[in-house]
Amino acid sequence: MLLKQPLEFYSEALAGVAQDELQGKLIVIEGPDSVGRSTQVSRLRTWLEHQGHAVLDTGLARGALAGKGIQQAKEGNTLGPVTMTLFYATDFADRLENEIIPALRAGFVVLTDRYIFSLMARAIARDEDRVWIEKVAGFALVPHAVYYLRADVRDLLTRVVLGRGAFDYWESGMDMRFGADMHDSFIRYQTRVIRALDRMAKRYNFIVVDANQTPDQIFRELRRGIGKLF
Amino acid sequence: MSLLVPNRHRGKLIVVEGIDGSGKSTQLSLLSQWLRSERIGVAFSEWNSSPLVRETTRRGKKKNMFTPTTFSLIHATDFADRLERYIVPLLKAGAVVCADRYAYTAFARDVVRGVSRRWVRNLYKFAVRPNLAFYFRVPLEVAIGRILGGRNAIKYYEAGMDLGLSRNVEESFRLFQGRILDEYEAMIQEVGFHVIDATGSIESQQRQMRDITTKEFGEHLHNGHLLRASQGDIDAAQAAPRIL
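Above: the input entities. Below: the structure tokens describing the complete assembly.
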């Protein structure tokens, strides 16, 4: 999984970006809701910084332009599926152009908690067109590595119940009413999200990590893989 | 054109396009008044008007945060919201939806800003294809004369200042609108515009629009296919026209 060549865009080059100037590493941690991504991202960050790397960590809907707007839209009751997909795509583009690319230019390790894949999986789970959203997100940079923390829907369910102790409206896909209540909708929606991510695994070179291992085991596996990128 | 989704609903979608100062909004308003007088249910949708997205657009403009890509995406988000929330449900109800600018505005403007033609056309693939798309063709100097005569200040993004074409606002506006005009002209065949000569009198332009509308919609204007209202509803609607 060693990529020496410069970073590339999937299908659509962003104007004004000289790819050979991007000196840093782009590492993606993907996976469905509640799978334990953020724990790993924060441990990886600490570890990478101990190794002497400057790290930028970023994640969905955290951008300066659209982050707030997305939060507000999710608090209301009118956010439609295509609108949501495009709002997230706006946020992603903003972070890519204004955070990720500048950090890569400066030689940072960019550690991102989800990338275009979750955005696409959520859209596909909502029956939006796969080819459409892949092309929309085609301006994304191909990462040096994508780690897909994979779990079954039953495991996610356990994590939700034992962790937060309550279902989240959006994580249950309740905007689409996949089931009669939050539990039923969660099962169906997350099953669709996992299926969509599984189907991307080969096409986008995911490194699949079994999320049913202990957090320590997962961390060791990630560390081993990421260590080889340097 | 195969890009957009065919309108399979009862209602009809009419859109107007053209550069700033082409007079398209005036014409659309006159057309809608005529349809209302025929007792047909009419609704409006304006470009860049979604309440869900407004704050984000405002923030981006105020702080000059937009890139060509994010500018294009936020407008598509705004459009998706209006489409999902207003336009499609209204079409299902059998209304005539009048849109002041549509996806074609993005095809022209966003391309001038620097995104690829192919990418922006894919971006709007989910849009409903209009039943009628009018393009108001006007020479650049005429449009600019109307704009500069009508108001004091051209805004930063309106003038395309983010493209760095010129440091002079008026000059930038001129160059920007000129390029948009070229993009519109180049897509006429592709998207099937009905071209209206916007240098003609207001009355004659309106007559052309009504003729084309009558021809295209034919019987549907009278046979109850479209949503129609009683006289009382019409009065109520005219008292408070909603712009969505």
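Note for the figure: The first strand of chain A starts at residue 25 and ends at 30.
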